[in-house]
């Protein structure tokens, strides 16, 4: 579920000639989950571009910003990422491209992870099943991005459970 918005007036150059043009920014007190997602984002951006992407801490959104809406507030996202009926929207994410860079924000850490993975998907990464054999990563030394959208998972529960019906 989500909404794609018109692309902004400018693309953000992510990499050129095998060099990173932006860093990944996380909040100074980012959780371990956000740090793990940032490291995974850096890993896949390197696989795509061949460039090393640094992860920096800041309260200001810049480069590729990864975090929660609480860490990087944006009043323009309050309505599109509103939490309704206790659960609807908890895992919502937003991808925004503007002159400051690319913001990958979620209502919670899991939403930020969804935003990061959607961003990688938009760059051409695909995970068809667990393992490298089932992972496809395009390679592109020159990489720019200009896209904005808001979304959330279509399923509100993804827990798997098995029972043995009829056992006595």
Give the H and E element order: EEEEHEEEEHEEEE
Shape: globular
Output the strand order for the largest sheet: 1-12-7-8-6-4-5
Question: What's the main sheet like?
Answer: 7 strands, mixed
Computed CA radius of gyration, to the nearest angstrom = 17 Å
Model description:
- This protein has 168 residues and is α/β, with parallel strands linked by helices.
- It is 19% helix and 27% strand.
- The longest helix is centred in the first third of the chain and has 18 residues, at 32-49.
- It is globular and about 45 Å long.
Features:
alpha/beta, 2 helices
Task: Describe the protein's topology.
Elements: E1 2-5, E2 12-16, E3 19-20, E4 24-26, H1 32-49, E5 55-57, E6 63-68, E7 93-98, E8 101-106, H2 109-122, E9 126-127, E10 135-136, E11 143-145, E12 148-151
Brief summary of the model shown:
By secondary structure, this protein is an alpha/beta fold. The protein is 19% helix and 27% strand.
